[in-house]
Amino acid sequence: MTTLYRATFLHTPENPFTHVDALRAESDGGLLVEGGVIRARGAFTDLSAAHPDAPVTDLRGGLLLPGFIDTHVHLPQVRVIGGLGLPLLDWLDQCALPEEARMADVAYARGVARDFTRGLVGAGTTTALVFGSHFAGAVDAFFEEAALTGLRAVAGLVVSDRLLRDELHTTPERAYAEGKALIERWHGVGRAHYAVTPRFSLSASEGILDACAALMREHPGVRFTSHINENTREIEVVRELFPGARDYLDTYERAGLIGRHSVLAHNVHPSDRELGVMAAARCTAAHCPCSNAALGSGFFPLRRHLDAGVHVALGSDVGGGTGFSLLKEGLQAHFMQNLMPGGVPLSPAHLLYLATKAGADALDLPDVGAFEPGQQFDALHLAPAPGTPLDAVFRHAASPERALAAAFATGTPGDVARVWIGGDVAHTRA
Ligand SMILES: Nc1nc2[nH]cnc2c(=O)[nH]1
Ligand SMILES: [Zn+2]
């Protein structure tokens, strides 16, 4: 099936941190989509002249953006968003972990997975790197739900063997066996990919990190994700638990877990050595600015990451974060960089890149992240309700870039009118 989409669209096929004029915009643009794949892109008049028989979907009056890519979000935490006022380790004990223990019940987990995938797609997220659950049945339920909604999910079994609560602990042997079974069932099936996911070094023995590394070695192409350097107290505990490690990163590095397919969430308090190793390994820091503010974790040193050459993408970190919208994460990133000494001024192009193409690069998914011919048509149509302030800005914006800035400043999931994944409609606003 072929469709010609007519819209004001913006995308960032290049990295605005390294390329000038990285923001590409077409005010009256056309995207020719065939079988879910973008075949041609340009001015609408040119495309409609070249393809006069293609049916037109008219999306004028809003903005069409590449689907958002969330590089850090927790499946079992959708129902505990908003536990404000606690630092990380207390928030885990009091808010997150009691809910995560409920995921042992597969029927409960399936309901959570439904809330979660709807939350993501409804916010315009079309691809996500998901911290699954400590329970394999819940991870299965999530992959099944993701397949039903069409979400591109990179996810895995979360594994820990100390310092959480007993129900959430496993053993290296079980972590390996359950991980292997899930990889065989889901990795590369449809839109799913597997991510080996030790929760964080604080809750992981060397034995379980070695089991994770064995899965990575034996299954090339699976991704790796965990947390790093989020909270100063957490970092102290990790230092005590791994007296032989040079720093937090080294706890993963020594196990052989750091490489091109590694995404480390937060990294609010890195050392220069850690940044150097992350850059050399071409791994990604998932920046979660709402979570960093909500849990009081600190200011993300974006300048130091960029200067070191570390790739950075955005994550919502639901439920330490405050919701699924990467528009809100972009705005919060902008606020935090504005407020911190030596912060990086972030333009609308930077925010769009961090929410889209940067995530595609982090996850090594070249078919998504922008509107390039040959890429999948993953997109969201931002169309605020008539009479809303964002609608007023859209109707009077001097340029698509100004409208994009306003989308980050005031846009919410309520402004996401429709979402496509691989050309299929995955969400339509009620
Ligand atoms: N923000 C956040 N940090 C973590 N570190 C270990 N687990 C978590 C979690 O669930 N959320
Ligand atoms: Zn997290």
TrEMBL record:
Binds 1 zinc ion per subunit. Pathway: Purine metabolism; guanine degradation; xanthine from guanine: step 1/1. Pfam families: Amidohydro_1 (PF01979), HUTI_composite_bact (PF22039). Its EC number is 3.5.4.3. Its cofactor is Zn(2+). One of its GO terms (molecular function) is zinc ion binding. The keyword Metal-binding applies. GO terms for biological process: guanine catabolic process. The keyword Zinc applies. It is an enzyme of class 3 (hydrolase). GO terms for cellular component: cytosol. It catalyses: guanine + H2O + H(+) = xanthine + NH4(+). Keywords: Hydrolase, Metal-binding, Zinc. Residues 64-425 form the Amidohydrolase-related domain. It comes from the Bacteria. Residues 29-54 form the Aminodeoxyfutalosine deaminase/Imidazolonepropionase-like composite domain. SUPFAM superfamilies: Composite domain of metallo-dependent hydrolases (SSF51338), Metallo-dependent hydrolases (SSF51556). PANTHER family: GUANINE DEAMINASE (PTHR11271:SF6). Belongs to the metallo-dependent hydrolases superfamily. ATZ/TRZ family. Catalyzes the hydrolytic deamination of guanine, producing xanthine and ammonia. This is Guanine deaminase. It comes from Deinococcus xianganensis.
